[in-house]
Design brief:
heterotrimer; B: alpha+beta; 12-stranded mixed beta sheet; 4-stranded antiparallel beta sheet; 31% helix; C: mainly alpha; 9 helices; 69% helix
Chain lengths: 310, 511, 303
């Protein structure tokens, strides 16, 4: 058993490195194909062609792409992701400084998703076909149908400007978290609710559930103990996937609410061609996503001993 | 069971809500603190680089650092840390420094510091210095407060570049290193650095020993609010006292609010459309004909664009240069809006059926750039020119124009500068890096060279005015406007924009 | 007049149950067909010149709000039913045309990503081995890579905005889910006896894959496709918000909402009406998706 786990972890580690390399390569190439950052820096009337040469050299951009990639890889091995063209600071430091904000927002949003979405899905399954089911499905679908930047500004106008209840933007305490977390949670809640509903519909029709009901156990017990345990597998998978997705993709929410997260940092860096930041941020986000997937898979085997680690 | 669960749920929600509502108040600023809402995070703390953003968008630099030579509100050069300057030879400028100025760490500002500023090879982190910072090559020290600055080339426009320098301390950086400086910057300005949370906010506190007198506002918080709609909401909700970079339509919303007001400032930026008949993207051939270019000038209703798209917040220009720039010819009348004349000219040139035209546009920091070009497209359609707009993202746009020369035959561009030659020389004189002059003849080069290298200001002014007239007659560009920078401000704050539209708080106070 | 206590007949009961069970599906279908019809008819009933901008009429309120004073003082001369946007273009007309583009984008991206994902999933699940490992790795890379950043980087690399680029970018991000579903199904069926039997009698791989395995995967893919259409329309809207959407003269709901956001407190109609159109359509598609899933197999775990 111990060997199994070790082999598994080693295999996953190898996989992680392969994925990290793959992502970094993709990003590297796309960035360099997307044009020369020096042009943006030197669109001032005072710039000369000599400036181009000077700046390109200073930033190491005058070398051929494969050479640049090798230099980059060498740098990674010593933890150096380069100096940000924009800030003049170590790119990885800048990214790591912005990471906690994103993690905080993601966790709170996902907590909302689980606390709200799962019970709603269960309720919809239990009351299948009734008006409760229809209502829940409609409301959650509604949440998924609106572009979240629009919902964001509407909430800000209502709750901040008109009613003065919440701050408009930025990061701070709980009050700053409410609106962005709600906006971020809207789409995943719909997914989770639907999934929970499907899961429970399947489980509730199983024989052992019928047996338990026939035995007269209280419905709550039946649902909670047995069904939840079984449903949690796929729920955990999707939640894990969502966490990974949100960690890197909450750009829209971060922009609307001025949330100082790593997603917005990355997008700004892409727009401004700040290569070191893009590369460092990709690395961070990819690592987190892969680690999240690993955690999900390990949780799998804990929740269901029948599942063998591949 | 269900009812109980429902009740508990409601109670929990209510509890959470009341906790969050407790202690809610409108706004965070106390009467001695000003919060500024910026559209973008600060770039490098080091003012000698800042290559990734237009120089005038920073709210940080005017408060933390001082310039050697600054600009007045009318764009003219004014003494600051350098009290007087004298041009001794085509490359040498003698300068006298202000005495008694101290950096925030107590270090004195003197000739050694100036020399260090100018002769550093790179900015912090090894980043390249901004091109304007390279105009000065070396410094010869005469005494503690007198120097001779040597420019890299013979350049009558040297001071245009030199005025971008802001003083950073020499001994401090030698002591804490460049990382130390970036972590805790020090300057001579009215405010001292406190902390910077990247992407969130940057805090400054007043420098009571500021050489121009202590500022009244004690604390300055520069907050990052990237979304324009959110930024406006923050101003309305009282979360910020000043909102930068608002869109022109948002400004009208502010004008209706009694507790807010709008401040404007004419930027040294000029926005215009440029012709590139030999563009590799094609459809540019008709633009080689001066009649076609003039027709396009007649066809576009620039006054309406300023009135409706900019909500009146721009001044019309007749050449691609700010009105206040040296050499601007105020006697030229702009092309009137005359679609009939446009059609006539097009027919004369052989395009009575119009033609297809590709247009490129990037925002380049102008909030309404897309609307401006969309309106232009509509105007062109009315005279038979079928234009297609390609919105290019800013970095790629710079690449197209500056590096690959792959930009469309008709495109939007803008420049900053207070001297017509500084802005235009590279674009209309052959052999220059950004040469796009469809009306070029050798005569242009002679004229331009005769003024660009002359130190005789009167001579330069005459020639520049003539060049302006030619640019107009031959419709080398479609000059549009000089946009006003807009600021949303709370009524209670007594503040006006500084030179070049900067957000300096040294003179501000609450009423 | 009906007597209250009269019991409904069996037929009546059947009808009521049918309606109750399929209510959302019916509503959804009605909405979607309505949108498609209106979109198809748009060039006829509401022709617009995509390049025409009438800035002097900008931001006029809807004509049925006649008492609302307009800041710029412009009177709505031709009576814009839903008002005009920041360039003076009629919102109702643009909205109708926007439905064409939005649906086009949604359907095309789903078609492309579906085809790619399904074929790759079939091949990968069926043949296994190195191909499978490569595909899985590719999936992991793409899943780990933040979608919007990938989209932006690709748009930038593909050279700017165009309808084709937007469709391409969205399609590339969508194939992975189909791939996973079809691959899982293929692997499940691959070891079954009837497949072995088919091989024994000499069926080619193609035949087995297409005739025996694929039909089992299709229902799940159908459900997935309906959800994805809605997701793609919203994704295009996010791209527009970030300035990476389609060129400006092509109206899409996403771009209209994004452009109108800054007027949310004043000229609210610029964002709100396209927003309502978007929400209604996506909701309708979602209803249809749920309904299809309920019919095929309510326990399907397609999200």
């Amino acid at each position: 058993m111990q060997d199994d786990v070790t082999t598994y972890l080693v295999k996953r580690l190898a996989n992680t490195i392969a994925v990290l390399l793959g992502c970094s390569l993709v990003v590297f190439v796309i960035l360099r194909l997307s044009g020369n950052p020096v042009s943006l820096m030197l669109s001032d009337p005072a710039a000369t062609p000599e400036d181009f040469q000077r700046v390109s050299q200073a930033l190491g951009l005058d070398k051929p792409i494969p050479v640049q990639y090798l230099i980059f890889l060498k740098g990674i091995l010593s933890g150096n992701f380069g100096v940000s063209y924009r800030y003049g600071l170590q790119a990885m430091d800048v990214c790591l400084e912005r990471l906690p904000a994103t993690v905080e927002l993601t966790l709170v949003a996902m907590a909302l998703v689980v606390i709200v979405g799962v019970p709603l899905g269960i309720l919809a399954a239990l009351r299948r076909g009734s008006w409760v089911d229809h209502l829940i499905s409609t409301i959650t679908l509604f949440g998924q149908s609106m572009p979240n930047y629009w919902v964001g500004i509407m909430l800000i106008l209502l709750l901040s400007v008109s009613l003065g209840l919440l701050p408009t933007s930025g990061r701070g305490g709980l009050r700053h978290l409410i609106m962005p977390a709600v906006v971020l949670a809207l789409h995943p809640i719909s997914k989770i609710t639907r999934l929970a509903r499907s899961e429970f519909l399947e489980i509730l029709s199983r024989d052992y559930v019928r047996t338990a009901r026939a035995k007269g156990l209280k419905e709550t017990v039946v649902v909670m103990k047995h069904a939840l345990r079984n449903a949690s597998l796929s729920l955990v998978t999707v939640i894990g996937m969502d966490v990974g997705y949100l960690l890197g993709g909450a750009i829209v929410t971060e922009t609307v609410f001025g949330w100082p997260g790593i997603g917005k940092l990355m997008v700004d860096a892409v727009t401004q061609r700040d290569f070191p930041i893009v590369q460092a941020a990709t690395f961070v986000i990819t690592t987190i996503v892969v680690l999240t997937n690993l955690t999900v898979d390990l949780t799998y085997s804990v929740l269901d001993p029948r599942v063998r680690l591949r | 069971m269900r009812a109980r669960a429902a009740i508990i749920l409601v109670l929990v929600i209510g509890l959470v809500f009341s906790v969050s509502l407790s202690g809610c108040k409108k706004g965070e600023a106390k009467p001695d603190t000003v919060v500024v809402g910026m559209s973008d995070d600060i770039n490098s703390i080091d003012p000698h680089t800042n290559t990734l953003a237009p120089m005038d968008t920073s709210a940080l630099y005017p408060n933390l650092y001082d310039r050697f030579i600054t600009r007045g509100l009318d764009g003219s050069l004014q003494p600051e840390l350098v009290t007087s300057w004298e041009n001794q030879s085509p490359t040498k400028w003698k300068m006298t420094l202000k005495q008694g100025v101290k950096f925030h760490n107590g270090e004195a500002f003197n000739a050694e510091v100036l020399k260090y500023n100018i002769e550093r090879p790179n900015a912090c982190g090894g980043l390249p210095k901004h091109p304007r910072m390279l105009a000065a090559k070396s410094v010869e020290i005469i005494d503690d407060y007198t120097v001779i600055v040597e420019s890299a080339a013979e350049d009558p426009l040297f001071l245009e570049s030199f005025c971008q320098y802001r003083a950073i301390p020499k001994a401090y950086i030698e002591e804490v290193g460049e990382e130390g400086f970036l972590a805790h910057p020090v300057g001579t300005g009215p405010y001292k650095f406190v902390e910077w949370k990247k992407g969130e906010y940057l805090t400054l506190e007043a420098n009571p020993e500021y050489w121009k007198g202590a500022p009244k506002i004690q604390k300055l918080i520069l907050r990052v609010i990237p979304d324009a709609a959110t930024r406006l909401a923050a101003l309305q909700a009282g979360d910020v006292n000043i909102a930068l970079n608002l869109a022109y339509d948002q400004v009208s919303t502010i004008a209706e609010d009694a507790e807010l007001r709008v401040e404007t400032f004419p930027l040294s930026r000029c926005v215009y459309m440029e012709f590139f008949p030999t563009s590799p993207k094609g459809t540019g051939e008709p633009l080689a004909d001066v009649r076609v270019r003039q027709a396009i000038n007649y066809a576009i209703n620039v006054d309406d664009i300023i009135k409706y798209v900019l909500n009146g917040m721009g001044q019309r220009i007749t050449v691609p240069s700010p009105v206040e720039a040296f050499g601007y010819n105020k006697d030229i009348q702009p092309y009137p809006y005359d679609p009939a004349k446009a059609r006539e000219l097009l027919a004369q040139a052989g395009y009575s059926n119009g033609f297809e035209l590709k247009i490129d546009v990037g925002t380049l920091g102008l909030a309404s750039a897309y609307e401006v070009v969309d309106t232009i497209v509509s105007d062109l359609a009315k005279v038979g020119i079928n234009a297609t707009v390609n919105r290019v993202e800013t970095a790629a746009y710079a690449d197209l124009k500056v590096t690959t020369f792959g930009i469309a035959p008709f495109f939007l561009w803008q420049f900053n500068g207070y001297d017509v030659s500084y802005v235009l020389y590279k674009q209309i004189r052959s052999g220059q890096p950004w040469f796009y002059n469809p009306a070029w003849t050798a005569e242009w080069d002679e004229l331009l060279d005769s003024e660009h290298f002359s130190f005789d200001q009167a001579h330069r002014e005459t020639i520049l005015k003539e060049i302006c007239q030619r640019l107009h007659d031959e419709a080398v560009f479609v000059p549009l406007f000089q946009p006003l920078a807009t600021f949303g401000v709370v009524e209670a704050l007594d503040w006006v924009p500084g030179p070049e539209g900067s957000v300096g708080m040294a003179e501000a106070s609450f009423r | 007049m009906r007597v209250r206590n009269q019991h409904p007949s069996v037929g009546e009961l059947r009808k009521r149950t049918f309606v109750r069970r399929h209510l959302r599906g019916i509503v959804g279908l009605a909405i979607v067909s309505g949108v498609i019809l209106l979109g198809a008819a748009a060039p006829i009933i509401a022709p617009i010149d995509p390049r025409a901008a009438n800035v002097s009429e900008k931001l006029t309120p809807p004509s049925w709000l006649a008492d609302e004073t307009v800041r710029s003082g412009a009177e709505s001369e031709t009576g814009h039913f839903l008002g005009t946007d920041q360039l003076g273009r009629d919102i109702l007309k643009r909205g109708l045309h926007g439905s064409r583009v939005s649906l086009l984008i949604g359907l095309t991206t789903v078609l492309i990503s579906g085809l790619v994902g399904v074929s790759l999933g079939l091949a990968s699940g069926y043949f296994g081995g190195k191909l499978d490992q490569l595909m899985i790795w590719l999936c992991d890379v793409q899943m780990s890579f933040p979608f919007l950043v990938l989209a932006i980087a690709m748009m930038v690399a593909l050279g700017g905005q165009s309808l084709v680029n937007v469709i391409g970018v969205l399609a590339i991000t969508g194939w992975v889910t189909y791939f996973r579903v079809v691959r899982a199904e293929t692997i499940k069926l691959r070891g079954r006896e009837f497949i072995e039997a088919a091989r024994a009698i000499g069926c080619s791989h193609w035949r087995i894959a297409l005739r025996h395995i694929l039909p089992n995967a299709i229902p799940a893919c159908l459900v997935l496709a309906t959800y994805q259409v809605a997701q793609m329309i919203i994704a295009e809207s996010s791209l527009s918000f970030l300035g990476m959407g389609v060129p400006s003269h092509i109206p899409t709901w996403g771009a209209m909402i994004a452009d109108g956001r800054q007027y949310a407190g004043s000229a609210w109609w610029v964002s709100t009406f396209p927003g309502l159109m978007l929400v209604t359509t996506v909701l309708g598609i979602g209803f249809v998706g749920d309904w299809v899933r309920d019919i095929i197999d309510p326990t399907l775990k397609i999200t």
